[in-house]
Specification:
alpha+beta, Rossmann fold, 2 domains, 7-stranded antiparallel sheet
């Protein structure tokens, strides 16, 4: 599970920003009588956190990021997706995927004469089997400058080095340091790792007992497709080795979107006759007279198309306890459906394996009606130098019965655009008319 993620000098992100899934401690204060009358739930009632044995922390199943256009909320999750992409693929595979996903390239903060020449830094903390793994990466467009992985057991809390490699510019080589807990044949590969290759991506092809749960999590990550490019993968999914597993996942995904009243009866995949790999995808509907009619899936509404891809990922994620990253979760999807998706992840009975969902949205209605805890709501806004600032709602110490959605639009938490007044718009329109 994701604990937190930190990134520095990536696209609009200049200073380090951290997105954390660690739940805030429950308040000792009693819920006020007015809150009880309004039927306002406590944060724990809205979404119980995943208790981590031995660490005295709980992790949240859902994180939501809100902010004005161009404030950098997409860059936050794109940075996370970029890091996971690099970690879980070889350099050649990553380059191929970067051509599909335009954001998946290393761009430093360009509005500063110093930052544009500096390296980009990432840190990812995850927890598996009650051990916290901390992965750090520093790189520029030419090569890796630093890569290291540590872990800490819940019994001792003491960080233990697994591996550490740092670029030495003088001799053009990496300086390696390996911990006592990381002994094994995999270390013999260190001399073969290229300047722009990550050691962690090589380890994914092996079995390394001490980090196997961490590697399994990386192997299940979906990339790019969670960020609005869903059509890139559907035509080749049936080529997976486990056909029965795919069919079961497909059936469960269909069951989800049928409950959302899309009118879809089923999905059919028909192999393309002129290609070795690839399928035509058809949407099948029932007619009033009991017959069936089908058309190409891309003729369905954009909402149904995106909802099906999302449902497919939801089924996989809930089944393995994975992570889903979605940019603009409410795009082309009704708010009531979005709320249902969030509640699926919040419900321990539906989500017993502790899957997580991270998304961005402009829909402030998701901030109301006991849907999200206060520590699940994050904001982005632009600093004076146009860089991205990321902060949680809990920084404002708001009451749990506050109408957060209204307070947000009123600008109490920042993260909203500064708009010209109606009078200024009229004057600007008059000036344009006079010029013409």
């Amino acid at each position: 599970m994701l604990v937190d993620f930190t990134v520095e000098n990536y696209r609009s992100i200049k200073e380090p920003v951290t997105l954390s899934a660690v739940a805030q401690k429950q308040s000792d204060r009693q819920t006020s009588q007015s809150s009880k009358r309004k039927r306002v739930k406590s944060d724990h009632e809205i979404a119980p956190g995943y208790h981590v044995e031995g660490w005295d922390i709980e992790l949240l199943p859902v994180l939501a990021i809100f902010g004005a256009n161009a404030s950098g909320k997409s860059n936050i999750i794109q940075a996370l997706d970029y890091l996971l992409l690099m970690m879980s693929h070889s350099t050649q595979e990553a380059v191929a995927l970067q051509k599909l996903f335009k954001y998946a390239k290393l761009d430093p903060f360009k509005l500063d004469s110093i930052s544009i020449h500096n390296a980009t830094k990432f840190e990812l903390r995850t927890i598996f089997n009650n051990a916290i793994y901390t992965y750090s990466l520093v790189l520029d467009r030419n090569h890796v400058l630093l890569e290291k992985l540590d872990y800490a057991l819940n019994t001792t809390k003491r960080p233990r080095r697994l591996f550490h490699r740092q670029w030495n510019e003088n001799n053009k080589k990496f300086i390696w340091k390996t911990g006592d807990y990381f002994i094994g044949a995999h270390n013999q590969l260190q001399d073969n790792i290229r300047e722009n290759e990550l050691f962690i991506s090589t380890l994914l092809k092996l079995k390394v007992d001490v980090i196997e749960s961490f590697l399994d999590w990386l192997r299940t990550i979906w990339h790019g497709i969670n960020l609005g490019s869903e059509d890139l993968y559907l035509a080749v999914i049936p080529n997976n080795q486990n056909a029965s597993g795919f069919n079961q996942t497909l059936e469960e995904a269909l069951n989800i979107i049928q409950k959302f009243d899309t009118g879809l009866s089923r999905i059919e995949f028909q192999k393309k006759s002129d290609e070795r790999i690839g399928y035509n995808i058809y949407a099948v509907h029932n007619t009033h007279d009991g017959n069936e009619i089908q058309w190409l899936f891309d003729e369905e509404s954009l909402g149904t198309q995106r909802l099906f891809q999302l449902a497919f990922h939801i089924v996989v994620s809930l089944g393995i306890g994975g992570l889903i990253i979605v940019d603009g979760l409410g795009t082309n999807i009704h708010p009531n459906i979005v709320r249902s998706i969030i509640r699926m992840f919040q419900n321990p009975k539906i989500n017993p394996r502790n899957a997580q969902l991270i998304f961005t949205s402009h829909d402030n209605t998701l901030q109301r009606n006991n849907l999200l805890r206060r520590d699940q709501i994050w904001f982005t806004q632009k600093r004076s130098d146009q860089s991205t600032e990321l902060y949680p709602l809990t920084d404002f110490h708001v009451r749990n019965d506050l109408a957060i959605d209204k307070a947000y639009l009123d600008g109490r938490f920042g993260a909203v655009p500064f708009l010209p007044s109606e009078e200024e718009m009229i004057l600007q329109g008059d000036e344009q008319c006079q010029e013409s």
